Amino acid sequence: MSRPWDPTATGVLHLPSGRLVRGRGLRHPLPSGPKPDFGVYLLGKAPALPEWEARWVRWPDFRLPVDREDAAAALFEAWRRAETDRVEVACGAGLGRTGTALACIAVLDGVAAPQAVAYVRELYDPRAVETPWQRQYVERFLTTHGSRR
Fold first, then answer.
1. Which CATH architecture has domain 14-148?
2. What is the pTM of this model?
3. What does the domain layout of the chain look like in residue ranges?
């Protein structure tokens, strides 16, 4: 088990279960401090591989994941691993796709789907989840992919 994220660090979302997940924008420098043990990267094109274990989800900017089953599997893995590992979720700016993914992870952690976007906006970034279809994706996440839980 690795040392957890600092819960007061920028971008760290504290989930109801006590799990901590860091969201960030890849256009910004890597924050100082410990590196992730596992990352989920939400981008339209494959990113350069980081030095830690990572998973790429093909997810174009302002859209939804191209393969929703793959995205759900990656988010379930991120949620499970956040119990013991430092997990990071990131896209270009760290807002729309990252916020959507963090809201889905919050739903997995017990936040009611209709409140998950507000939860992430309050505790991560007020601009998180940028489009109406991203909000709908969060609201329908468990009904569509709940059997993995």
1. Alpha-Beta Complex (3.90)
2. 0.95
3. 14-148
